[in-house]
Automatic annotation (TrEMBL):
SUPFAM superfamilies: ALDH-like
Protein's name in the database: Aldehyde dehydrogenase family protein
Family to which the UniProt record says this protein belongs: Belongs to the aldehyde dehydrogenase family.
Catalytic residues as annotated in Swiss-Prot or TrEMBL: 256
Lineage, opening ranks: Archaea, Methanobacteriati, Methanobacteriota, Stenosarchaea group, Halobacteria
Amino acid sequence: MSNKAPAAISDQYELWIDGEERSAGTDDRFTVVDPATEDTVADVGMASGDDVDRAVSVARDAFESWRSRPPKERVQVLTAIAAAIREQSEYLATVETMENGKPISSSRSQVERAARHFEYYAGIADKIQGESIPLSDGYVDYTIREPLGVTAHIVPWNVPIYLFARSVAPALAAGNAAVVKPAEQTPIGALELARVATEAGLPDGLLNVVPGFGAEAGAALTGHPHVNGITFTGSGPTGTAVAQSAVENVTETHLELGGKSPNVVFPDAEWEAALDGTITAIMTNAGQVCSAGSRLLVHEDIHDEFLDDLVDRAAALELGPGIDDYDMGPLVSADHLEKVQNYIDIGREEVGDPVIGGGRLDRDGYFVEPTIFDGVSHDTRIAQEEIFGPVLTVSTFADEDEAVELADATDYGLVAGIYTSDVGRAHRFARDVDAGQVYINEYYAGGNETPFGGYKQSGIGRENGVQAIDNYTQIKNVCANIDLR
């Protein structure tokens, strides 16, 4: 396959507002770069505050009609969107790989997850129900779940197509209208998904995309007085700023802010599964995953043998352009490459040279070698701070209590993994660890149906599963006195 962008990908994109491409209100534009080649993929219009205001206004108008349509119609539209995504899956996967750099097989998987997400919430759209509350014979009391209104979605660059679907699908299913601000590194997938959804029958104005930068488009969206709910996925500092902005308008906010997740391996683990799972946990998408298992905690009795085998696994990974489906692609941008390289330098100062990797490939693109640091103390920066790259820290533990203690020894609490054949131990760990999701004997277990979100500094709220509907609805209580005669 060629490393060049396919001809089907346009070299120029605008905003998507009210069911069509619309030029930004200014002449400002930015470029999307293929991280595997450093070539320009496309030129994109940059949304201003006025453009965001226009998108929110259009969404408000569209919401009033959408919320009153029978839920079965929302079912039909979301089902059609899922089918349309599948029909264009290869094209959408190519877009994701060209923007983000991940292997094309991974992009295909994420596009299918996006389709499944619309399909899943289509199945829920006509089952969003209230409850009857018993009071006394003289009253009838019940609740109604109603949509919020206009929801804002700040989508990150690491899994852009799936994470777009993860919040937009339940928002639409619940009867809301959406305005999406994709990451400036990966806006094309969001714009193409909006086109696909519109062509599949989504009414105009319900899904709007305002590409641009956080300081202008993002801030204008999250601080907009007519936005009724915000979903943000990204870094902790930016998430805090989003929450502070939202508080001024008393806007409901859901934050997914990343992690420093532990992956714990006991001596009775299934050896090959634990090795494969550890590599998957940190090297998937070049480590650019919020729930990456970036801290390996391995029992002291098996440390040496496990590390030797793990290094062999890492050394066998082949790096190259995602479009050619190598094991691992590049980092997303030059800026992110610099950040990851800085952390590797910090690791050398704190721990010493990595046991493998630590360098940049001598070629075009933003490629960093799979990197493993051993003997890492839990109080080092590389063990505490989210690197968001293919950088693994390794530490040892002596028993279950220490494993939990070390697993919890960060400000994050997004995910934790454990490998053991002792069912009781696995469930004791799941009970005691501070994490929003626990993987037992398989990292990245679960799916669209399983709620996802974090404890502590990893965020507020849950995505996926039926629980996500709570993010996009509000409860109205109705209490009727029926004894008036």
